[in-house]
Amino acid sequence: MREYPRMFRVWITKHVSSFCGTNRQLSRIDPTIENICPCCGQPDEPTSHINRCEDPFKHSVLELEDWLKSANTDPILADLIVRYAESRGESTMSELLNRNYNGYIIYRPIAKYQDKLGWDNIRKVGYQ
């Protein structure tokens, strides 16, 4: 991890340990902070909600899609990643690959390894 920026290492540590700055944790420190998601109002906001809250996520997926296009990512891979992000853990990448692309063989290993990592770890894939 030494090769990554310090603040990224701090963020990863907080996220993996479930002590990132969600309102669940902030309300423990400051009782004036209500323990709800500020975007959607879900009570008792856990760390996993950061990757699942639909409100800010829609905008992030659009930005991801734009970036994948600007980076000249293979259109099938880009669409697969966007569909996976939109599913927010409701579908595995392998299911989406098989459902939408007949199991397009070149992307089976990527889907397999992402499924092993799981949805909550997608944000860490590029950093390991």
| Biggest beta sheet attributes | none
Q: Give the CA-based shape.
A: elongated
Low-pLDDT residue spans:
123-128
Helical percentage: 40-55%
The radius of gyration is 17 Å
Q: Please count the helical segments.
A: 6
Q: Number of DSSP strands?
A: 0
Which structural class do you get from the secondary structure elements? mainly alpha
Distance between the termini: 8 Å
Strand content: under 5%
Provide a concise account of the structure shown:
This protein is mainly alpha-helical and 128 residues long. The chain contains six helices and no strands.
Describe the secondary-structure layout.
Blueprint: H1 6-16, H2 23-29, H3 54-70, H4 75-87, H5 93-101, H6 108-117
Overview of this protein structure:
The protein has 6 helices and no strands. The protein is mostly helical. The protein folds into 2 domains: 1-52, no CATH class; 54-119, no CATH class. α3 runs antiparallel to α4 and α4 packs across α5.
Give structural attributes:
disordered C terminus; 52% helix; elongated; 128 residues; mainly alpha; 6 helices
